[in-house]
Each structure stands twice: as structure tokens, then as C-alpha cells.
Amino acid sequence: MHDDMKSGIHSSPWPALPASAYLPINRCSLPAAILGGLTFQAHPITLSIDGIAELHRDLWQRLDKLTQHADRASQFMDYMTVHFLLQEPERAGYDPQQPYARIKMDYLQLLRGWMFDADSREGAVLKGWVESRFGLLPRWHKGLIRSADDDTYQNYLHQRTTGIYNTNALEAQLDLLYTYCQYELAHRYPETLHVTLYRGINPEEVTQAMPDKGVMLFNNLNSCSRTQERADEFGSLVYRVPVPQTKVFYYSGLLPGRLQGEDEYIVIGGLYEVERIKTVHID
């Protein structure tokens, strides 16, 4: 199912991640300038969000005792429900009379909102989480983002802020979801470094760093597919991309029975060497 793409990514010269695409600090084990670059694409290593492995050590110990993927997924979702009081919002401070109270919003609803529309308020929260944890800035949200002074970026910030206001530790829920995804991928595919995915994108969304070498700057969070046919539905340009397994935030099948998403993978962005394989002509 997964592919080890140790070869096929050219060795030099590699452009650096543009300074406008990342923050100088993050909450990850590697700086954004490194994890968002082509060197990382070619030679990925484990990424971890500060403190999550230690804070939830008991979860990983429980998962280590289970041999079936479905059992581990069930254990993870049960842990999320209990740890974040998802079925007892009043204990987490929920007041139905409070204006804009959105404490019932959780990680599953965020994923559902993303899959319906990546430019939604839920999409802004997810992109904001990537910005906070990995230090990669969004390049697109309802339009191309060129700088922090853009109206487009300010509108993204407004959606991100309103999306997370009066919710129950949404970003902490996403921290744990990403870490569980990486736990499960490492457990099921321990020798795998990359997964080959397909990205459908429209021309106006493309930010190319070195178009002559097939290098693209992706948004900080992206939907990809395991199949070319599915990618055709999302844009007129289709690219084949070897994505580091450690940049997969969520994939279809991670939580059986929830958010299957037609072979969808949600991946963290940065610079990628890509192969353009198709132009879809839309009448």
C-alpha cells in the first residue's frame, strides 16, 4: 500500500523554503525551514509535537497491547472522548446561554468540515494548527495569500479565531490526532518512508518555486488522494507526489467507520518535488 521512495527525488540543487512561507519558531521537533524543505522530503525523519508523547504516555501503553488496527482506533477514540470530556461538555465549562459557545466542536467535526470545504472555518482552524505546531504559513485560504498584510490572510485569521473561540482544547485534540496517526502508520508500515499520492489543484492555487525542476510550494495543509482518478476531481492539474509518511496528518481508514473520504490523505505542506502527470480539460 505504501511505497518507499528513497530514489526518484533529485539531489541538487535544492531551493530553500521561502522565508515568507514559515515562522522562525514552532512547537515541533524540527524547525519549519527544515521540515518544509526538499531535503526533508528526500530524507524524512520522525516529527513530534512538543510534550504530546510524554503527556499521553498511558494511551500509547494501552495501544501497544492491542494487535488489531480496529481495536487501537476504538481505544484512541474512547481516550479522546474521556480525556477531552466530549460527551460531558458541561464539565468542560459549556454554557448554552453563552454567546458563540462552540464547545461541542471536536476533532471529528473539524475533519468533516475540511472534507466538505478546505476553505471553511474548520479548514482555517486546521491550517492555523499547522501554522502553530509546525511553523508553516498558509498559502491559500479562499484566495492566494501573499503576505500577512493581505486581506486574504486577515480573513483567514478571522475565521481561525472565530473557529477556535469558546471550544474545548481543539488544537490539543489535533495534536493527539496527528500523533496517533503517526503511531498507527509506524506500527503498520514500520519500514516505509514515503507514500505516493496524487494532488489535484487549479492553476490559480499554484505557487511554484522552481517550475523547470518540478518543484512546488504546497499550502501548509493539503488534501491528496491515493488514486489519480480521485485527484482529477479536485483540480485541472494533477501531480504525483512522494509524501513523507511523517507528514501525513490523517488518512482514510485511520478511524474505521468514520470519515472514510474516498482514499483521502491530509498532508502537511512545504516544498515538494512533484511530477505533473495530467492536465484535466474542463469545459
> What's the main sheet like?
4 strands, antiparallel
Number of distinct beta strands: 7
Helices, by number, come to 10
- Order of strands across the widest beta sheet? 2-3-6-5
Task: Give unreliable regions as ranges.
Answer: 4-8
Query: SSE string, helix = H, strand = E?
Result: HHHHHHHHHEEEHEEEE
Radius of gyration over all CA atoms, rounded = 19 Å
Helical content, roughly? 25-40%
Strand content: 15-25%
Broad structural category: alpha+beta
Which term fits the overall shape?
globular
Give the averaged pLDDT, no decimals.
88
- Distance from N terminus to C terminus (CA atoms, Å) equals 34 Å
Helix and strand arrangement:
Layout: H1 32-35, H2 38-42, H3 52-55, H4 57-64, H5 69-83, H6 107-116, H7 121-134, H8 151-164, H9 170-188, E1 194-201, E2 207-210, E3 215-225, H10 228-231, E4 237-244, E5 248-251, E6 264-273, E7 275-279
Antiparallel strand pairs: 1-4, 2-3, 3-6, 4-7, 5-6
Helix pairs in contact: 5-9, 6-7, 7-8
Structure report:
The chain is an alpha+beta fold. The protein has a domain at 52-187. 34% of the residues lie in helices and 18% in strands. The chain contains ten helices and seven strands. The chain has helices at 32-35, 38-42, 52-55, 57-64, 69-83, 107-116, 121-134, 151-164, 170-188, 228-231, and strands at residues 194-201, 207-210, 215-225, 237-244, 248-251, 264-273, 275-279. Helix 6 (107-116) packs across helix 7 (121-134) and helix 7 crosses helix 8.
